[in-house]
């Protein structure tokens, strides 16, 4: 290990950098977010301060800007070769990771930094929660206790959405999900208008394609990604963050009578902790172990967090 970088056979196609080595790659990238803005972007149990933004997310913003520019040049070369004048293709970023690991914070911070790039791109953020089947469908298929597993998503609709955005359609619609009612919002949609960059955040966005006799059915959502990020942490830490978040929600969102989880608001701290641990062991940990964690090696970049939620090391796929 020298200069914050490790590049050997153990990493295979990756180069590993510690926090200091990664931070040095920020170069002259300007910090454009205030502490107040960062406070709004952080999660319930996933705070982010200027140190994390400057040392982790500014280098990542710089890397993504270079990727966007390089992809644009490649697109121009291909258009020249084909003798066409194809429209600009949106750059798609995937953000994957476990429940409670902080991938939503990562996606939100990246979007805000990208919006402030000198060229002022249009950047849209879509979470895959909107592509979960409605609760009524999940109940009919006996999948409510598998919510978040690959089979609980309308993967065909998600694939069509990302494909349509990537192909340059001027307007593409996605369902909206309500975390209060824990269900799809009927008749409510997110409309995406030909973005320069689309960020797709979700548990299973790096899942490989399922086998199919239909050639089109062999596609995966990640086939449309230009860059992918996996937010990683030790399982014991993620479990603790999940329980902490559950306890916080019990005191806040669960207190709302309209909340799907309102029945848990009257639990004692000990009862809530036991229930959250039980849910983690029965649903979230098996999903992480069986479906999410195995996709980590498919990411272009892995952000590994320490026990305090700060990123300790970064693994970048070599180009």
Automatic annotation (TrEMBL):
Biochemical pathway: Cofactor biosynthesis; coenzyme A biosynthesis; CoA from (R)-pantothenate: step 1/5
Any one Pfam family match given in the protein's UniProt record, by short name: PRK
Record localization: Cytoplasm
CDD domains reported in the protein's UniProt record: PanK
Domain Phosphoribulokinase/uridine kinase intervals: 92-235
Alphabetically ordered keywords of this record: ATP-binding, Coenzyme A biosynthesis, Cytoplasm, Kinase, Nucleotide-binding, Transferase
GO biological process: coenzyme A biosynthetic process
Top EC category: transferase
GO molecular function: ATP binding; pantothenate kinase activity
Residue numbers binding ATP: 97-104
Reactions this protein catalyses: (R)-pantothenate + ATP = (R)-4'-phosphopantothenate + ADP + H(+)
GO cellular component: cytoplasm
EC number: 2.7.1.33
Record family assignment: Belongs to the prokaryotic pantothenate kinase family.
Annotated PANTHER family: URIDINE KINASE
Identification of the protein by name: Pantothenate kinase
Organism (species): Nakamurella sp. A5-74
Encoding gene per record: coaA
């Amino acid at each position: 290990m020298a200069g914050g970088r490790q590049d050997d056979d153990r990493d295979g196609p990756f180069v590993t950098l510690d926090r200091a080595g990664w931070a040095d790659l920020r170069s002259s990238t300007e910090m454009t977010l205030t502490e107040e803005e960062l406070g709004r972007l952080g999660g319930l149990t996933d705070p982010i301060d200027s140190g994390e933004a400057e040392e982790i997310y500014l280098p990542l913003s710089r890397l993504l800007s270079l990727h966007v520019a390089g992809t644009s040049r490649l697109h121009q070369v291909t258009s020249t070769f084909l003798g066409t004048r194809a429209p600009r293709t949106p750059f798609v970023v995937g953000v994957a990771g476990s429940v409670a690991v902080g991938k939503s914070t990562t996606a939100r911070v990246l979007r805000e930094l990208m919006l402030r790039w000198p060229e002022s791109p249009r950047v849209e953020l879509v979470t895959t929660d909107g592509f979960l089947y409605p609760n009524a469908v999940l109940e009919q298929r006996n999948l409510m206790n598998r919510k978040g597993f690959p089979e609980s998503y309308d993967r065909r609709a998600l694939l069509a959405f990302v494909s349509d955005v990537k192909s340059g359609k001027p307007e593409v619609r996605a369902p909206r999900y309500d975390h209060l009612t824990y269900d799809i919002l009927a008749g409510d949609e997110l409309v995406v208008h030909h973005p320069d960059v689309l960020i797709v955040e979700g548990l299973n966005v790096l899942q490989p394609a399922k086998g199919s006799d239909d050639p089109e059915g062999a596609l995966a959502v990640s086939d449309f990604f230009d860059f992918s990020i996996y937010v990683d942490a030790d399982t014991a830490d993620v479990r603790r963050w999940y329980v902490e978040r559950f306890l916080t929600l019990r005191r806040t969102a669960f207190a709302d009578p309209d909340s799907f989880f309102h029945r848990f608001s009257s639990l004692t701290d000990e009862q809530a902790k036991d229930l959250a641990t039980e849910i983690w062991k029965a649903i979230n940990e098996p999903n992480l172990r069986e479906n999410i964690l195995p996709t980590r090696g498919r990411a272009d970049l892995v952000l590994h967090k320490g026990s305090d939620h700060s990123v300790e090391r970064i693994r970048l796929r070599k180009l």
